[in-house]
Amino acid sequence: MPSAPPVTTWRPAPVARVRSWLGDWFVVAAWLGLLALVGLLTRPLLTGDAPAAPSGRQLLVADLLITLATVVPFVVYLSVTESSRRRATLGKRWAGLVVVDASGGRAGTGQVWLRNIVKALPWEIAHLGVTRAIFEVQTAAAITLTVLSLVLAAACAAPALIGGRGLHDRMAGTRVERASWSPAGGAAP
């Protein structure tokens, strides 16, 4: 008795999603490595004694600088590449994935930006918590922010690993699919 043909689905395998994340994390690591090198080279130029515990204003300035140096460039990278003709970051291209709207059509630029801002929120919130933990100030806020970042990260990542859409995709009306998938079951152009 012949077996039934496999069901074609847009949902990428968990291995493809992890490969995509690893590729994009490599991009982040390269950027952070460059920032660390610049920091090491410019540190001798900075003068003055920093207080043991920063003031509220100094903490906010640190939060802003960290966001502008790390999170904002990553959101721009994600959004520009996912809005491009290829509809994919370097990690997604490596894994054979693309970002589309919820029905499988081309995602709009606004959808892609919203998707990536929501996806970056756990990272940003973690920065806020870790900064406070490092300086040993606002300890309750540090713990709350760190836990919140982990919950949001799980809400974005866990559904993707089981073939669903994470919080960021649901809010933006997008999804990630295999680049070769088409509704007719054949290869996409």
Give a structural overview:
There is one protein chain. The chain has one domain. The chain is built from 6 helices and 2 strands. The chain has helices at 14-42, 56-83, 90-95, 109-134, 139-161, 167-172, and strands at residues 97-101, 174-178. Helix 2 runs antiparallel to helix 4 and helix 4 runs antiparallel to helix 5. The longest helix is centred in the N-terminal third of the chain and has 29 residues, at 14-42. The radius of gyration is 20 Å and the shape is elongated.
Helix proportion = 55-70%
Overall, the morphology is elongated
C-alpha Rg, in Å?
20 Å
Order of helices and strands: HHHEHHHE
Overall tally of structural domains: 1
Q: Note the main sheet.
A: 2 strands, antiparallel
Termini distance?
34 Å
In short:
This is RDD domain-containing protein. The chain has 6 helices and 2 strands; from the N terminus they run H-H-H-E-H-H-H-E. It has helices spanning 14-42, 56-83, 90-95, 109-134, 139-161, 167-172; strands at residues 97-101, 174-178.
